[in-house]
Amino acid sequence: MKSSTLIRLTIAGLVVGFLLSCASVPHPNLVAAQQYVEDAMDKVSTAQKANKFDMKGHAARAKKLMEQALEEIKLAEQAANQ
Prior knowledge:
This protein has 82 residues and is an all-alpha fold. It has three helices and no strands. The chain has one domain (2-80).
């Protein structure tokens, strides 16, 4: 009985170890890039408020492009982890 429990625990440990080794680890440069884009979006929002949103749509367009950039960074991270 004890040896079968030991075998089960060993197998369970190997499975858990394998699953953890396959877990996606965020790429540090992509994490930094994501943070920079998010910070830039905050700065543009602050600029919009300071200018009473009168930027002829350019700030709003820039924020949409930054949202696309965030999506591309997410896809890049997924591709790096495959």
